[in-house]
Amino acid sequence: MSLYLFPMVTVIQEMCARIGLLSGNGLAALIKKKYSAKIVYPISSLLIIANTINIGADLGAMSASIKIIFPEFPFVITSVLFSAFIIIAEIFIPYDKYAKVLKYLVLSLFAYVITAVIVGGKIDDIFLATIVPSINFSSEYAIMFVAVMGTTISPYLLFWQTSEEAEEDVTRHKIKEIGGGKPKISPREIMLMKEDIGVGMFFSQFIMWSIIITSAGTLYFAGITDIQTADQAARALEPLVASFPNSGQIAKLIFVFGIIGTGLLAIPVLSASSAFALSDTFGWKEGLEKKFTQAKSFYSVIAASTLIGVWITLSNINPIQALILSSVINAVVTVPILFIVMRVANDKKILGGKVNTRFSNIIGWITFAIMTISVIVMFFSFIVK
């Protein structure tokens, strides 16, 4: 799926980035202006619910990964410590500096690329499977298809991308604050934005493809088709370090670094996108570059959503199942938001002459149709099962 998801996610994220860059507004504020508060309230509510469940799932996965190395360390305490660190860091450290440090942890995900080369089967088989994905019509397949769509094209990323580009306008002194007027953007700035989106989306899908190849070449061939624990998932990396002493532990360590790194990067984005949406909806001061005293409501939403995420981890939901559930919810929530994004991205009153191209509209509406149909098929599969 990653081959076909790449153009979809790239086009959608470029739309959101262009909307934020050229309007100087967040997505919720534009929805409110273009439609009405009656539309933005339910959209923001759906976003916050999905984001909070995602935060809980991510915290659960991070805490579960810690137990791989320190089995006796209490799960709840780990979740609380992670959430406290994230809240403090997000309030007191500018996100760009925070991300620069943590990106080195995420580099451990490239271990999947190397492992994919080691365990990869016949090149022609991999190529064929990449071009022609295996499809069946079971409810389990429908759920996983929707989950993959939801984890790739997520509602929080749509809001985050728009607000972050608007905040970049503030940083570059194009406008005084988000929503503070229309910035003057040069063609070069638009080109650089598109290049940044393209490169970022390529690597995200390349890593996803590598993880699929690695998991198929290790876990699947070992008979592990229903992953229930982080410890099982970590076994996919064992071929990378097979020649080292204690290769199992090293593989687990690499896996843990990847999970923690992505979690520490993703949770601030999840909570911040909720804060951006609520701030746009109610007209609060917003922005990660602002101090806590300048945007108390904005940062309060960040803290509250993260803490509620901790509460979610206290339920007995399996962390792996929680990640799948949160991805499915993402896909369901994305459908109405994506429809609105398509409308805004074609509004000349907002974007002037920089509305969607024919190519963007074709890919965008195909993406909307696929997500809508896949969600309907998933719910239908529950009924007929």
Count of discrete domains? 1
N-to-C order of helices and strands:
HHHHHHHHHHHHHHHH
Strand content: under 5%
Could you give a short account of the major beta sheet?
A: none
Number of helices: 16
Give the name of the CATH architecture: Up-down Bundle
Mean pLDDT: 85
**SS class:** mainly alpha
CATH superfamily, please? Answer: Amino acid/polyamine transporter I
Low-confidence stretches: none
Shape: globular
Helix proportion range: over 70%
Count the beta strands. Answer: 0
Cα separation of the termini: 25 Å
Radius of gyration: 21 Å
State the assembly state of the protein chains: single chain
State the CATH class: Mainly Alpha
CATH domain topology: Amino acid/polyamine transporter I
Architecture overview:
The chain is mainly alpha-helical and 385 residues long. The protein has one domain: Up-down Bundle (Amino acid/polyamine transporter I), CATH 1.20.1740.10. The protein is built from 16 helices and no strands. Helix 1 runs parallel beside helix 9, helix 5 packs antiparallel against helix 12 and helix 8 crosses helix 14 (319-344). The two termini are 25 Å apart.
